[in-house]
């Protein structure tokens, strides 16, 4: 190993909640070698070079929770692992990713650290770590580092791999409503919102409500016009043409000026407006015919082009385009003036992060220049205004100006085509006035419209278009969730998970179970290999038939993969017995506070993810487990065989719910009220042996069933029939009719 080097020993991809954070993260084990003896303030010139290359590090608050906090740590002296955390996060931010999370903690081996960092997309995160190490070593050794190239490399990777801005806006809006999101492609925009039977799907700005027929109609501009016209919506007169000669004949019939465009093009490619001569029409036809399967000639509508976004039959945003002009100075060419007066605008760029595009002299622009007797190399006289484009980016928000009648017309156009999300292009002189009185018309209806112009307009305020789409997919009280039970602990996880799934089966729900014995859908086993892992749990959540899910997770899953779900309705912890688990691979220590990984920091993860409307089911006889009660966002239900267990006594005194054994019966108690279930011997799984561990597992499952709002009859029947072949649950539906008499706090779930 080189003197003063940084080596990544291992990278663990944590694809769900972990000991570090709720969202996905990468845990990198880094060996800083001799840097252990050289904190940042002992490396000559290092801090100054780092600040020069990454001045935006001033925004990192770090431990001091103040602007410039991390720079203060650098000056005081902090270790290279901590520096790599912040440098990698900043490189990801410069690449266009959201602000992220980072933690660096030492291990028991000197010079080796665990660095946990947000993982928005794994290829991007790994690149940030790689570039971060190169930057740090260059700063240490006072060697050149091309910061511009590093940033550009990061941006290119993010552009290729991360969610596009339209998809990201929808996902962010869903997460703001606590609706879970699952990316279904490593580097694409297909995303599942919600779990199991409550899921919806989006693909960029299309959803599973977007009709394939409607999308096909929208691509056929001539058919779209026919349908709109039949319903009385104003459209420009025109027809499809078959040749340049036919195009000019159509133009003469309609009357110039005309528009020539592809019948099924998009993004404005091959669209030419305000054509007045046979030569212009012929040139436009030659280009338009290459961009689509046919060509349309339409009457030019006088005015400015606008894009109105309609979601669920309502106008949610509107932008207008603008003329692009330059002013001559008598010295510079048209191209030079475009570069110096227009393209220098920082809002213009080549990526989706830029609301305005770079202006180039394409065929349409050349035609505009020719009309003015100019070309790219012409030098306009000082003070002369030169038109470059008539309808440039739709970058100017005008949502608040749209006339109500025009908004209704746009919504009607979307309904006629059949789109749940539509970009309506219309041309008019004044968007604040009705279309009819000014001769305006709808010229296109687009499926899957870009949302960027509304999220990040060039001028005007951003509009919450992602939120509008999410609200259209999910009602106001719908969270995209199914009842989900996570079960963890040192012992008994599988037995508890299987019994809970059995209860759900009897209740008539289509329950999925992922455990050490495999994957079960109802009573059908669909996988025999171990499924108590991230992949097994995720398979359930991707299945549209799953109405409730039970997922087993061990310590190794939490440490090595992360939980397969973001939050759960019920989190069960059976027990914690450190001596019975070999977790040395992860450097787990008996104690260590926040600096080392402990059994407490592992298993608390299951409680941390319980929803505020959910429940933690905790073994009151295990002090380590019972201590988690204070961490739960929802309600806690304690269980233990002995009702005199201190945790149960205290909890009952506060009217909390408990499950225990008294007089040989299983009891559910809410404060001082009791529900007496069956005798222990009535449960075949307990049998005559009455093993204490088995009894504890049964009590945990009963408490989870109670938390899920299952009836007393379902729970008792489940205890008496677990392991026995049963008929279809439809025959047992009457079991769901009766309500438990003392369920004072019925469980609630976001569906």
Description:
There is one protein chain. Helices cover 32% and strands 22% of the residues. It is an alpha+beta fold and 751 residues long. Strand 30 (657-662) and strand 31 (665-670) form a beta hairpin. The longest helix has 20 residues, at 122-141. The two termini are 55 Å apart. Mean pLDDT is 92; it is low at 736-751.
Main beta-sheet strand count, sense and barrel state = 11 strands, mixed
Amino-to-carboxy terminus distance? 55 Å
Strand-residue fraction?
Answer: 15-25%
The chain-level mean pLDDT equals: 92
Unreliably modeled segments: 736-751
What structural class should be given to the helix and strand makeup?
A: alpha+beta
Kindly state the percentage of residues in helix. Answer: 25-40%
Number of strands: 32
Count of DSSP H/I helices: 23
Strand order of the largest sheet: 25-24-23-26-22-27-28-29-30-31-32
Calculate Rg over CA atoms.
Answer: 32 Å
Shape: flat
Secondary-structure blueprint of this entry?
Elements: E1 7-14, E2 25-31, H1 46-53, H2 69-76, H3 80-94, E3 102-106, E4 112-118, H4 122-141, H5 147-161, H6 165-176, E5 181-183, E6 190-193, E7 200-203, E8 206-207, H7 212-219, H8 221-230, E9 238-241, H9 244-254, E10 258-262, E11 272-275, H10 278-291, E12 295-299, E13 304-311, E14 314-320, E15 324-327, H11 334-341, E16 348-349, E17 356-357, H12 363-371, E18 385-389, E19 396-397, H13 404-417, E20 421-428, E21 441-447, H14 452-455, H15 465-473, E22 484-488, H16 493-506, E23 511-515, E24 518-521, E25 524-527, H17 534-541, E26 548-552, H18 555-560, E27 568-573, H19 599-608, E28 610-619, H20 623-626, E29 635-639, H21 646-653, E30 657-662, E31 665-670, E32 673-679, H22 692-707, H23 712-721
Parallel strand pairs: 16-17, 22-26, 22-27, 23-26, 27-28, 28-29, 29-30
Antiparallel strand pairs: 1-2, 2-4, 3-4, 5-6, 6-7, 7-8, 9-12, 10-11, 10-12, 13-14, 13-20, 14-19, 15-18, 20-21, 23-24, 24-25, 30-31, 31-32
Helix pairs in contact: 1-4, 3-4, 4-5, 6-15, 9-10, 16-22, 16-23
């Amino acid at each position: 190993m080189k003197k003063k080097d940084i080596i990544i020993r291992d990278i663990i991809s944590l694809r769900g909640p972990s000991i570090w954070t709720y969202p996905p993260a990468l845990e990198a084990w880094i060996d800083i070698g001799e840097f252990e003896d050289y904190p940042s303030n002992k490396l000559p010139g290092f801090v100054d070079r780092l600040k020069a290359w990454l001045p935006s590090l001033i925004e990192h608050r770090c431990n001091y929770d103040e602007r410039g906090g991390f720079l203060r740590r650098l000056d005081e002296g902090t270790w290279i692992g901590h520096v790599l955390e912040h440098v990698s996060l900043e490189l990801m931010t410069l690449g266009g990713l959201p602000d992220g999370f980072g933690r660096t903690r030492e291990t028991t081996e000197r010079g080796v650290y665990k660095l946990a960092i947000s993982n928005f997309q794994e290829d991007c995160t790994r690149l940030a770590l790689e570039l971060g190490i190169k930057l740090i070593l260059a700063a240490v050794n006072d060697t050149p580092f091309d910061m511009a190239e590093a940033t550009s490399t990061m941006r290119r990777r993010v552009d290729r791999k991360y969610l596009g801005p339209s998809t990201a806006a929808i996902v962010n809006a869903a997460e703001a409503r606590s609706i879970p999101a699952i990316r279904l492609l490593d580097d694409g925009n297909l995303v599942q919102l919600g779990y199991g039977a409550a899921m919806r799907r989006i693909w960029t700005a299309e959803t599973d409500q977007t009709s394939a027929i409607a999308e096909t109609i929208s691509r056929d501009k001539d058919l779209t016009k026919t349908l709109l016209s039949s319903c009385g919506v104003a459209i420009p007169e025109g027809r499809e043409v078959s040749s340049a000669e036919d195009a000019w004949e159509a133009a003469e019939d309609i009357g110039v000026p005309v528009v020539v465009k592809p019948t099924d093009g998009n993004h404005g490619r091959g669209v030419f407006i305000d054509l007045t001569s046979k030569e212009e029409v012929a040139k436009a036809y030659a280009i338009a015919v290459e961009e689509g399967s046919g060509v349309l000639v339409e009457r030019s509508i006088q005015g400015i082009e606008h894009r109105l976004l309609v979601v669920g039959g309502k106008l949610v945003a509107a932008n207008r385009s603008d003329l692009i002009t330059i002013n001559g100075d008598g010295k510079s060419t048209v191209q030079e003036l475009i570069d110096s007066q227009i393209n220098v605008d920082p809002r213009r760029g080549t990526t989706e992060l830029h609301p305005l595009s770079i202006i180039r002299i394409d065929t349409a622009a050349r035609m505009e220049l020719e009309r003015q007797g100019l070309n790219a190399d012409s030098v306009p006289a000082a003070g002369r205004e030169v038109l470059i484009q008539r309808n440039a980016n739709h970058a100017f928000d005008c949502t608040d100006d749209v006339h109500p009648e025009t908004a209704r017309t746009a919504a009607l156009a979307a309904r006629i085509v059949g789109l749940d999300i539509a970009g309506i292009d219309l041309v008019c002189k004044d968007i604040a006035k009705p279309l009819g009185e000014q001769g305006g018309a709808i010229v296109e209806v687009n499926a899957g419209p870009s949302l960027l112009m509304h999220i990040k307009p060039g001028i005007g305020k951003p509009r919450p278009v992602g939120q509008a789409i999410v609200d259209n997919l999910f009602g106001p009280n719908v969270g995209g969730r199914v009842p989900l039970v996570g079960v963890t602990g040192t012992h008994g996880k599988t037995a508890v998970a299987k019994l809970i799934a059995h209860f759900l089966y009897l209740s008539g729900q289509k329950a999925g179970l992922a455990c050490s014995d495999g994957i079960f859908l109802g009573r059908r086993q669909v996988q025999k290999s171990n499924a108590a892992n991230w992949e097994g749990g995720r398979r359930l959540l991707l299945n549209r038939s799953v109405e409730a899910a039970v997922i087993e997770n061990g310590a190794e899953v939490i440490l090595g993969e992360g939980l397969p779900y973001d939050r759960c309705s019920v989190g069960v912890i059976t027990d914690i017995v450190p001596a019975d688990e070999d977790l040395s691979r992860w450097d787990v220590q008996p104690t260590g506070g926040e600096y080392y990984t402990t059994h407490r920091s592992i298993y608390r993860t299951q409680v941390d993810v319980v929803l505020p409307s959910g429940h933690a089911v905790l073994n009151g006889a295990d002090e380590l487990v019972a201590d988690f009660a204070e961490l739960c966002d929802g309600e806690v239900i304690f269980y233990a065989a002995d009702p005199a267990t201190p945790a149960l006594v205290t909890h009952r005194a506060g009217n909390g719910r408990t499950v225990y054994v008294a007089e040989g019966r299983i009891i559910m108690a809410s404060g001082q009220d009791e529900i007496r279930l069956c005798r222990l011997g009535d449960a075949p799984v307990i049998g005559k042996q009455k093993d204490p561990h088995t009894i504890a597992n049964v009590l945990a499952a009963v408490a989870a069933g109670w938390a899920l709002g299952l009836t007393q009859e379902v729970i008792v029947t489940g205890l008496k029939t677990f392991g026995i072949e049963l008929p279809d649950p439809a025959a047992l539906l009457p079991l769901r009719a009766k309500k438990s008499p003392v369920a004072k706090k019925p469980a609630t779930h976001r569906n």
